[in-house]
Design goal:
2 domains, single chain, eight-stranded parallel beta barrel, Immunoglobulin-like, nine-stranded antiparallel β-sheet
Length: 546
């Protein structure tokens, strides 16, 4: 039986991942059970950090983040799950934007969205908290960007967008993005409008809007480090592309865009294809109608037009879209392994069509459709840090977390700008894990993951990241002394993290208050249950880290 979208509003979003389309087939309702854990009482001997070989390098902006275009313009984005005492995002009188309801992806259920006024990127607290995570790429894109009209004048925003568009982006709003990037030291990644309003009578994409957008960016001193032509072309009609849009049409448009970009912004890296919703864990639920334009077909049609291969990854869909991932799943080996299995799928396509080109993961988070309720809790730290560690080992150059401060998967609470556990995980990664990736020479045991990279300061120092997903403490045998920073929480569903048992906090202006690391002596070290620990060996003298 085929199910029509119009009669199933809540169900419709299960096949429409506006901004995040990974559709995970889970026949039993949860992930398969984990393998047996590391035997209780076992001691894990850490390899000599001085002898860990280098296996590659990642971008200096490896751990990065997204800000959705819907946040910049104001619009309807994933509604946060209700929480006790939480205030609405805006008073009822402000529940309209200058784009009205056109910003909501067509055919989707209004019940799953909530209007947001434009994000205040001049907020000093937000600027300081983002700067602490630098250097980063800030990707301003998402499904909403595919249908956003750039109003290239200094007049107040139009109340409705022109025909063929869904949102209005003003010069002032975009200038605010560029000012934010200047204040934080971050670099811009974006995408362009591809909807009907950008096309001529023959249905061909035209560069008028893109030209105005780039010209204004350059005029005010901004630069675009990298860009995708459109957000998530594997589901084109949800993203606002013309009805019936196929790989041949995308190839024609992408080649036209590539030629345009080389002239309009020659220093910009052209990313693509930017697919999502494919691979071993992204199957369409039975009975659903949804056109998937496969990345294989896209790449066969475009040829090697892209400078780097980009893709998106979500291990499942959230509860909003009928997902059923649980907190227990969040610590399972099967859940953690999904990021590598999907990378293998896309890396094979890269090797087939774009051999030698770098891989960029330009959008990812706990689950698609705004994240599950526990996406903002400590349980998600393991998914995120495992993803950073595993993909660095596989040569992925950057991982862009969705989002900085919107919905339940934001690094910051959008109402209070209070850092969530994933923010602190990012911060510790940035401060302890450098660009040179090392082979830890210790295979992951069930419930245990170990990753290694040179420390950012150089001088031969090495940092190991140890993820203990078990409900019991873990004993490590260290070959030499290390500085220890262990992330824990009162519970997996806590929204507040601890470092070495002390609260992590910020001042009102956004200054982070990190407790001091503690000295872990050579010999046995007990790590807490369900903890993520960074161990920096300052005197390792690893030749690869000098």
């Amino acid at each position: 039986m085929q199910m029509k979208i119009s009669g199933q509003r809540a169900l419709a979003l299960a096949i429409m991942m506006a901004g995040a389309m990974a559709l995970a087939q889970q026949p039993t309702g949860t992930l398969a059970a984990s393998k047996p854990k590391t035997p209780s009482g076992a001691t894990i001997t850490i390899p000599n950090p001085a002898k860990l070989p280098s296996i590659g390098k990642v971008d200096a902006r490896y751990a990065s983040f997204n800000v959705e275009m819907a946040e910049i313009t104001g619009g309807r984005f994933w509604k946060p799950y209700p929480k006790a005492g939480a205030q609405p995002l805006a008073p009822p009188a402000a529940q309209t934007s200058h784009a009205g309801d056109h910003s909501q992806p067509p055919g989707t259920s209004a019940d799953l969205y909530q209007y947001r006024p434009p994000i205040d990127l001049s907020n000093p607290r937000l600027v300081k908290l983002a700067r602490e995570l630098g250097p980063s790429y800030m990707r301003v894109s998402g499904t909403w960007a595919n249908r956003t009209w750039f109003q290239d004048d200094d007049q107040p925003a139009r109340s409705t967008p022109p025909a063929g568009f869904g949102s209005v982006l003003t010069r002032a709003e975009w200038h605010g993005v560029l000012n934010f990037l200047h204040a934080t030291g971050d670099s811009l990644v974006t995408s362009f409008a591809v909807s009907a309003g950008t096309r001529n009578a023959a249905g061909e994409w035209t560069p008028d809007q893109a030209q105005a957008f780039i010209d204004f960016t350059h005029h005010v001193g901004g630069t675009i480090a990298a860009a995708e032509f459109m957000n998530e072309p594997t589901f084109p009609e949800v993203g606002g592309a013309p009805k019936g849009y196929d790989a041949a049409q995308f190839a024609r448009d992408a080649k036209s865009f590539a030629a345009f970009l080389r002239t309009a912004s020659p220093g910009t890296v052209f990313l693509g294809p930017g697919g999502v919703g494919e691979g071993p864990h992204s199957l369409m639920p039975p009975g659903m109608q949804m056109k998937l334009m496969e990345s294989d077909a896209i790449l066969a049609a475009t040829g090697p037009v892209f400078d780097a291969f980009s893709y998106h990854f979500y291990g499942a869909v959230s509860q909003r879209c009928m997902g059923r991932t649980t907190v227990a799943d969040a610590l399972s080996d099967e859940w953690l392994d999904r990021t590598v299995q999907t990378e293998e799928f896309y890396a094979a396509l890269r090797d087939k069509y774009m051999p030698g080109k770098p891989l960029w993961l330009t959008e990812t988070a706990e689950t698609a459709c705004g994240g599950d309720p526990f996406a903002s809790d400590f349980a998600d730290v393991f998914r995120y840090l495992n993803q950073l560690g595993a993909l660095a080992q596989r040569g992925v150059q950057t991982v862009m977390h969705n989002t900085l401060a919107a919905s339940d998967y934001g690094l910051l609470d959008e109402r209070t700008l209070e850092p969530r556990p994933d923010y602190w995980a990012t911060l510790l990664w940035k401060r302890t894990m450098g660009q040179t990736v090392l082979q830890p020479a210790l295979h992951p045991a069930p419930g245990l993951r170990l990753y290694a990279q040179c420390a950012p300061a150089g001088g031969g120092a090495v940092t190991l990241l140890v993820l203990n997903m078990q409900a019991t403490a873990l004993t490590l045998r260290l070959p030499e002394a290390a500085q220890q920073a262990s992330l824990t929480a009162a519970s997996l569903t806590s929204s507040r993290a601890l470092m070495n048992g002390k609260p992590l906090a910020t001042t009102p202006d956004g200054t982070v208050l990190l407790p001091s690391t503690v000295l872990a002596h050579a010999g046995n070290l007990t790590l807490p249950a369900t903890s993520a620990t960074f161990l920096t060996f300052p005197h390792a003298s690893n030749p690869a880290c000098r």
